[in-house]
Automatic annotation (TrEMBL):
Signal peptide boundaries: none
Gene3D superfamilies, sorted: HAD superfamily/HAD-like (3.40.50.1000), Putative phosphatase, domain 2 (1.10.150.240)
GO cellular component, one term: cytosol
Organism name: Aureimonas endophytica
Bilayer-spanning residue ranges: none
Gene Ontology terms, MF aspect: phosphoglycolate phosphatase activity
InterPro entries the UniProt entry points to: HAD-like_hydrolase_sf (IPR050155), HAD-like_sf (IPR036412), HAD-SF_hydro_IA (IPR006439), HAD_sf (IPR023214), PGP-like_dom2 (IPR023198)
Name under which the protein is recorded: Haloacid dehalogenase
Highest taxon, organism lineage: Bacteria
Gene Ontology process terms (BP): DNA repair
Length: 224
């Protein structure tokens, strides 16, 4: 019996070039709260859920973690990202990759730790209609990455077995989530993480960007 492949994509840094806009938006939000933090420390946590992100940052710098502060930072980040989103573009090959999968009859979905209030800008840049394509955002699950809930929900929306799905992401949080739901992790370097980091977190293949993945699609079962 042939196993049908399916692809579950992260969004930021995987399909759209938006990681550093998120970093700058978080830095602006933290500055508003009087929290001085280096950009590199922020970047290392991009890809996990916003709530876990703020909890970890506040814990690291010894700040009290309150629900009010976490929610305030989230809204400040969203407002800052709204001002930066116009610079966001699809990563090389992203639109072509999704079109190739669609034309080949291969199922795919998007699963992002971002909420729809920020993800909508990225989806617009890709030309993806959430009414036509399964898109699972942070708003729809109890926990985001590195928990597997987003990818499990995306697989359920597609009606596929998570164990035969490819999770494509740019961060260690994507790969850890893939490991936890027993999917195969495919890492991309275009979000700023290195190949060894992604492989240590569970990636069984690593490519430069969506264009590179498209050129090697047959290596990860992307053919009919």
């Amino acid at each position: 019996m042939r196993i049908e492949p399916s692809f579950l994509f992260d969004l930021d840094g995987t399909l759209v070039d938006s990681v550093y806009q998120h970093v700058l938006a978080w830095q602006e939000a933290l500055d508003e709260e009087g929290i001085d933090l280096s950009v590199w420390r922020i970047h290392r946590k991009i890809g996990m859920s916003g709530g876990l992100f703020t909890n970890q940052l506040l814990r690291e710098i010894g700040q009290p973690i309150t629900e009010e502060k976490v929610e305030r930072l989230r809204h400040l980040h969203s407002a800052a990202y709204d001002r930066l989103h116009r610079r966001i573009k699809p990563l090389p090959g992203a639109i072509e990759l999704l079109k190739t999968l669609t034309d080949s009859g291969i199922k795919w979905a998007i699963a992002t730790s971002g909420r729809m209030e920020t993800a909508r800008f990225n989806l617009e840049a890709l030309g993806v209609d959430p009414g036509a394509v399964p898109v699972v955002t942070r708003d729809l699950v109890k926990y985001a990455k590195p928990d597997p809930d987003l990818f499990l929900a995306a697989a359920e929306r597609l009606g596929v077995d998570i164990r035969t799905s490819m999770v494509v992401g740019d961060s260690i949080w994507d790969m850890l989530a893939a490991q936890r739901c027993r999917a195969l992790g495919v890492g991309l370097l275009c979000g700023g993480y290195g190949q060894e980091e992604l492989e240590r977190a569970g990636a069984y293949r690593v490519y430069e960007d969506p264009k590179d993945l498209l050129g090697h699609l047959d290596e990860v079962g992307g053919r009919r």
